[in-house]
Amino acid sequence: MEVPFAGAQATVGFGQVQVSTGLEPLDIRHAIGGRLDRLDENKQGVLITLDELGVESPMEEVRAFATAIQHLIREERNIAVVFAGIPSMVDDVVNDKVLTFLRRAERFHLRNVRNEDVWSAFEHTISENGKRADYGVLNALTLATHGYPFMIQLVGHQAWRISESAGHDDEITLDDAQQGIEKARDRIGELVNGPAVDGLPPMARAYLMLMAVDDGPSNTTEIAHRMHKTPQYASVYRARLIHEDYIKPAGRGYVEFTMPFMREYLRQYAAFNQLEQNLEDMALSIIESAEEPGRR
Fold first, then answer.
1. N or C: which terminus of the chain has fewer CB atoms within 10 Å of its end residue's CB?
2. Residue 256: phi, psi to the nearest 5?
3. Cα angle, residue 35 at apex, residues 102 and 76 outer, rounded to 5°
4. Helix, strand or coil for residue 14?
5. Is residue 238 part of a domain?
6. How many other CB atoms are there within 10 angstroms of residue 16's CB atom?
7. Which of 58, 87, 104 is the last residue of a domain?
């Protein structure tokens, strides 16, 4: 059964509602309510999951969806919603003035997946889908993820695609894995690191960039020195970045990045900006020279 809602179209099937591009807001409420009417709500209900919720989400559709869900909750229907995203990006959605009821949602901070579990997931998924991967391949794939759930998905997907493109029908080679890891690093920069950094205030962004100078954990006193600020001043941004899961404590007086490949992304970001600045300086120099009296 398909019903329109708020710029999206909902498909209601057995125990699920799928959303795609479509029309009016209120109908999702009626569609889910109709589904619940056919269930024994003492034992059954509807669970809706939203992934990658954040600043890139179509907010008008999210607001319409949330309004419908809020009505159903007020009617005490047996419904639950689970959404996932990077903490800082989820905060932007939760703090939306129309979505205030979401602030009462219970939060769970998902930690990194253990290496043993990542290894096992790669090994089973690859073998169950008709390919093999030796110890070196599984080790490379596992270590590249840093236990970060989205990176596990990206690394596996890219390595599989590379192996298919190379005509390796029954295996993922070490070269496939290494190329897949490089692709995954680029993608996580585009999809996660870039949007996350761009949404920060300048001083918080500067704190991260000054951390990226180090090859390992950063000394917080040294970061304050690089900022030309007092440790107390810098600690405000350190606390915010820890709260929003950009960085984490790494022993007394030290912090390190939480997001995988954030250091590499920031170094590329800084190099690009420096090149851009050099080009701007060069262009200004040419303009100033051209404007000097007697020169054309």
1. C
2. -145, 165
3. 45
4. coil
5. yes
6. 12
7. 104
Residues of the chain with pLDDT under 70: 1-26, 52-58, 87-89, 91-102, 272-284, 286-287, 290-296
**CATH number assigned to the domain comprising residue 230:** 1.10.10.10
Residues 6+ apart with CB under 8 A from 230: 224
State the helix-helix crossing angle for 149-165 and 135-145, rounded to 10 degrees.
140
Q: Is 286 part of any domain?
A: no
Asked whether 220 and 202 are in contact (CB, 8 A), the reply is no
pLDDT at site 38: 86
On whether residue 155 sits in a domain, the answer given is: no
Position 94: which residue type? V
For the chain, how many residues are written?
296
Task: Give the helix ranges, DSSP H, for the chain.
Answer: 27-37, 59-74, 87-94, 115-128, 135-145, 149-165, 174-188, 194-198, 202-211, 220-227, 231-243, 262-290
Amino acid making up residue 221: T
Record the pTM.
0.65
Show the domain range for 79: 2-104
Contacts of 187 (CB under 8 A, 6+ apart): 154, 158
What pLDDT score does 247 carry? 93
Alpha-carbon distance of 119 to 183, in angstroms, equals: 19
Q: How is residue 288 written in tokens? A: 């100033």
Q: What is the pLDDT of residue 211?
A: 92
pLDDT of res. 183: 94
Kindly report the number of other CB atoms within 10 A of residue 150's CB atom: 19
Note the pLDDT tens digit of each residue in 142-164: 999 989 888 999 999 999 999 99
